[in-house]
Amino acid sequence: xxxxxxxxxxxxxxxxxxxxxxxxxxxxxxxxxxxxxxxxxxxxxxxxxxxxxxxxxxxxxxxxxxxxxxxxxxxxxxxxxxxxxxxxxxxxxxxxxxxxxxxxxxxxxxxxxxxxxxxxxxxxxxxxxxxxxxxxxxxxxxxxxxxxxxxxxxxxxxxxxxxxxxxxxxxxxxxxxxxxxxxxxxxxxxxxxxxxxxxxxxxxxxxxxxxxxxxxxxxxxxxxxxxxxxxxxxxxxxxxxxxxxxxxxxxxxxxxxxxxxxxxxxxxxxxxxxxxxxxxxxxxxxxxxxxxxxxxxxxxxxxxxxxxxxxxxxxxxxxxxxxxxxxxxxxxxxxxxxxxxxxxxxxxxxxxxxxxxxxxxxxxxxxxxxxxxxxxxxxxxxxxxxxxxxxxxxxxxxxxxxxxxxxxxxxxxxxxxxxxxxxxxxxxxx
Length: 430
Fold this sequence. Notes:
This protein is an alpha/beta fold and 430 residues long. The chain has 3 domains: 7-148, no CATH class; 153-175 and 238-426, von Willebrand factor, type A domain (Rossmann fold, 3-Layer(aba) Sandwich), CATH 3.40.50; 183-236, no CATH class. It is 40% helix and 17% strand. The strands form 5 sheets. The chain has a 6-stranded mixed beta sheet, sandwiched between helices. Strands 5-7-6 form a 3-stranded antiparallel beta sheet. Helix 8 (150-168) crosses helix 10.
C-alpha cells in the first residue's frame, strides 16, 4: 500500500505519540474475535456475530479513539490540528493526514503489514491532482486490510504477561527446580564417578586425584575410565503444555467476548515460556465441532464459530501432541464456557446434542480423560460460566484426572491461569 507522507506532522504531533502505549490500548481491537465466516443465523439464537472490519479505515477510527482516550492528543495538539479560523472540513482533513502518517509509521516500524490494494481495471483512468476528495480516500482505505506482524504479537504477549504478573505479585522466575541431581553446567553438589551418558562436565582435580592414588605420581599419568569424576548440578525439569481453547458458539454470545481474553492468555504464556522456560513447550488446540492445532503465529487471527463443543476430540488431540514430546511434566490447560455437546464418530461424522448432558457424549469424553490420566497428563480447567451441567462435568474430570477447576471471568482469567502455571512450575518432581 502506498502512503502519502505529511512532513508537517512528522516532527511535531506524530513524534509525540507513544506507539507502544497506543498498541496496548488497541489490543482488544487488534485481537478481536468475531465469528469465523461472519454473522451466522441459528434457529435457536437467531443472528449473532458482527461483521469483522480489518480495513485500514477501521484501524484509523480505532487509533483516533485510542489517542483521545489515552490523552496523547492534548488540548494544545487539538488546537494545533484545528488551526486558526479554519473550517470543519479543513480540520477533518488535517486529522485524516495525521492518522495516515500514524498508520504509515506502524507499517514502517514493523508493527503492522497491509494487503495490496485490488488491481484497477484497464479502463480505469488516474485522477488529476485536486479532483479527489476525503471520501474518495476513505473508500480506498476500506479496500486495504491490515494484519499483525510477529513483532506486534510478541509485544502484546509481553505487555499482557507484565500486566498479569503485576496483578498477582512478585514471583520467582527461572527453570523448574527438582529434587534430583544431574550432570549439568552449574555445579551445586559433590562430584561422582562418571557413568555412560553423563554430560562430560569433568571434576578435573578429583579425576587426577583418583589417577594418582591408583597409579602413583609418575609421568605420563595413567588415566583410567574409573578415575573420571563429573560435577553434579540440579536437574531442571521441563514441561509440555497444551492450551485447549473453546471456540464454540457461546464464547462470543450474550454481549461478551470471552475468546479474546483467552487469546491474550495464550500470548502471555507463550512469551513467558519462551523467555523464562526455554526448555518448555506450548501448543494451542481449539475445539468446536472438531479439534485442531493452530500455530501460535496465527493465534491473533483465530475466531470462534457457530460450533458445538467437542471436548473429547480436543483431549484426544492434546494427548497425542503431549506424548510426542519427551518432557518431565505434561499438562492440559482447558478454557471453556460450555459442557461437551459433540463427539466425532468412528466414521468421521460429528454427533451433536446441545441439550443437557448427553450420556453418549459424556461417556466418550470421560474415556479420553481416563486416557490422559493413564498417560500421566494433568488437566486443569478454567470455567468462564457456572452452568450446573458444566460444573458437574468439570467436577468429574477433576476427580478422574487429579486436576483442578477454577471459576473465573474474563477479567480474572489471565491472573488465575498464570498463577496456576507458576505454582505448577515451582513444584518439585520426585
